[in-house]
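Backbone geometry:
***
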Amino acid sequence: MIIEERKITVGEVCEGYFNDAEEGVVGYDERLDIRPKYQREFVYKDAQRDEVIRTVLKGLPLNVIYWCKTGDDTYEVLDGQQRTISLCEYVDGSFSVDDKYFYNLPADVKKKILDYPLFVYVCDGTDSEKLDWFRIINIAGEQLTDQELRNAVYAGSWTSDAKRYFSKTGCAADALAGDYLKGSSIRQEYLETAILWAASAEGKTIEGYMSEHQHDPSAVTLWNYFRSVIDWVQAIFPKKRKEMKGLPWGLYYNEHGKRTDLDPKALELEIQHLMGDEDVTKKSGIYEYLLTGEEKKLSIRAFDRRDALAAYEKQNHKCAICGEEFEFEDMHADHIKAWSKGGHTTPENCQMLCRDCNLKKGNQ
């Protein structure tokens, strides 16, 4: 890994500045991708943006900015995107600070801003070296997410096209599946989720998947896969509920998408029953339970200490199965009639078992 320190003025960075929602943001005489297509949209609030300008006007130092070399004399911003855009937008006349636009300032103040030196570290190296370095330096300001760091390493035609589907406000993924996804599109969380699902289907990591597809001309294969996942969810569980948001639907699809025994009407009746069951404390786990039959996904309500102590005294401190006497702390409150067979978490359905007997019962 090669790291070079440079001093580059605000005026040099603003040379050739261009900001387009679709094509990204460039500057430094069009040699610098300030916000490549794959990165998040501008997220600074007005107060943060204005403070950058005030810092420069006072001659105080800004934090170091990091660039990544992409060619002989071309670069992209790794860390410092928000500060850079704030400066360029101000010089471009897009906003005022303390009721003054850049073009309202005296000539000497304009020159002071344009001559202000930015401390820039430029790095060059292998993909793995860049990713490690990006994570090390990403410790301040508006931090990059893990997916934004990956986007920087595996930048290419595929990543740029993927943003069109997953990484913009009001993007196609949000319109199609916003009710099922957690996180934010502009922070790359939708994209990260989609790649994770698709990568898992192929037995790959996110990095492995992105590396393989980095130079594909488009991300339409990923988009088609994602649509298949959502189509399957809507077909199997047609009634939307808030508990569905953020579940790993792609992982469920990878494992259960080809099953023919999933009856949407029967599943909906079971969902209604489980939603109304007070013993089911994790309602979001209902969907995975219906697909896998794993009762632990429901987090069945446990007996409280009062009921457990009452059963312990009623049993004369003895295990209900082996009959041996134990301290209370060495025993477990257990459902006499299992929840799966209609038993509920009520005092009359509570028995105390030693750890060994409880384990044996659970394995039966």
In short: DSSP finds 16 helices and nine strands in the chain. Residues 276 and 328 are 32 Å apart (CA to CA).
